[in-house]
Specification:
By secondary structure, the protein is an alpha+beta fold. The protein folds into three domains: about 100 residues, Pdz3 Domain (Roll); about 70 residues, Roll (SH3 type barrels); about 220 residues, 3-Layer(aba) Sandwich (Rossmann fold), CATH 3.40.50. It contains ten helices and 22 strands. The strands form five sheets. Strands 10-9-8-7-12-22 form a six-stranded antiparallel beta sheet. A hairpin with a 2-residue loop joins β5 and β6. The protein is globular, with a radius of gyration of 26 Å. About 10% of the residues have low confidence.
Length: about 425
Amino acid sequence: MESWAVSHPLNTVTEDMYTNGSPAPGSPAQVKGQEVRKVRLIQFEKVTEEPMGITLKLNEKQSCTVARILHGGMIHRQGSLHVGDEILEINGTNVTNHSVDQLQKAMMFMRAQFDYDPKKDNLIPCKEAGLKFATGDIIQIINKDDSNWWQGRVEGSSKESAGLIPSPELQEWRVASVAQSAPSEAPSCSPFGKKKKYKDKYLAKHSSIFDQLDVVSYEEVVRLPAFKRKTLVLIGASGVGRSHIKNALIRQNPEKFVYPAPYTTRPPRKSEEEGKEYHFISTEEMTRNISANEFLEFGSYQGNMFGTKFETVHQIHKQDKIAILDIEPQTLKTVRTAELSPFIVFIAPTDQGTQTEALQQLQKDSEAIRSQYAHYFDLSLVNNCVDETLKKLQEAFDQACSSPQWVPVSWVY
C-alpha cells in the first residue's frame, strides 16, 4: 500500500469554499495574491509489475508536481492524483526537496536491448552484485546515482533484490569503442531486393557517433492496458518462409489480415488487376511520391521501382483490419511508431533436418539479422512446421492485443 501526501490548488467551488469564492467556515482564509492549497493524504494499491502512469515536472516554484496522467493507467483508473498536484511526502518521507529525477526513478522501467552477463564483464566493480538479463527483459530502475552503474531488477523475476547494470552511457561507450567504422550490412530479406532506407520524421536524428553506429542499450517503456496492434510485421532472411506465412494468414483470416498492395513502375501483366496485386504508376510519379516522403520503404528490382506507401497501410487500419508487412529489417525503426502500432515477429529457419549448404547459409543470414535487430522483436519463432508457426503466431498476436503491454514511452508522450 502506497501512501502519498500531496498539495492541490483549491477551485472556487470545493468542499472548503463557498461558490462565490469566499472562505467557508472553518477553512483557511484566502490571502490576497496567494493561492490557497489543500494538503491531502492519499493511499493506493501499488502493483509491482505495473507503473503508476504519471510523469513529473518542476513548477515555477521548483516544486515537483504531476505533469501528465496516462489515460488507462493505474493512477487514472484510481483517480487518486490530478495534474498539478504537488508531491510533498511518500510513505512518510518528506520529498519536498527531491528533484524530478529522484522521484521519477521509482517509476522508471527500461527494456533491455542487449544481453548482459555480469560474470563476463571485466568493467563491473563486483561481478556477484551484477544483474543478468536478456534482450527484451523489462528492468525496473531502482537507483541511478552512479553514472556508470545503475541498480535494477528484472520484472517478473523471483529475485526481489536489485543488482548492478551498466548505465546507458557506459554501455554505449563500450560498444562504440570497439565498433567497426563501417559496420557490416545485414542481408536482404525483401522480395524487391536491396532497398534504400527511408528517412523521415519517424527516424531518430543520426548526428552523433552512437546513432551512426546504431548503438543500443535500453529503451524507456511504459505498461499500457490492452490495446489493438494495428500492424503485423514479419522479419526474416530471404527464403525463410515469410511469404508463405503471410499468404496463409490472409487466406485463413481475410476479414482480419490484409497485405498493402505495393506500388510499382513496371507494366501490368494481363492477369493483374490495378490495386489488387500492385498499384501501377509512372516512374515520374513514383519519384515525386518518394520526394514527398509518402513511402515507408522503396527500392528497385530488375530495373523497376517498388514500394509501400504509408497511406495504403492507413487505409487498411481505417477498415479496422490488420496490415501485414514483410519488410527489410532496416525499416523497423521507421514503422515502430504509435501510429502503426506494430507487432514485430522474427521468423528463423528450421533447426531440424539435414544441414545442407543452402540451409546453413540461410541460418547464417538469419543470425546476422537477429544479432543486429533482436531488440525490435516482440516475438521470435523457429519455422520448423508452417502450421505450428501459424498457430503460435496467431496465439501470440491475440494475446498481445488482449493483455497489458510494455511499449516505448515515445508512443505515449
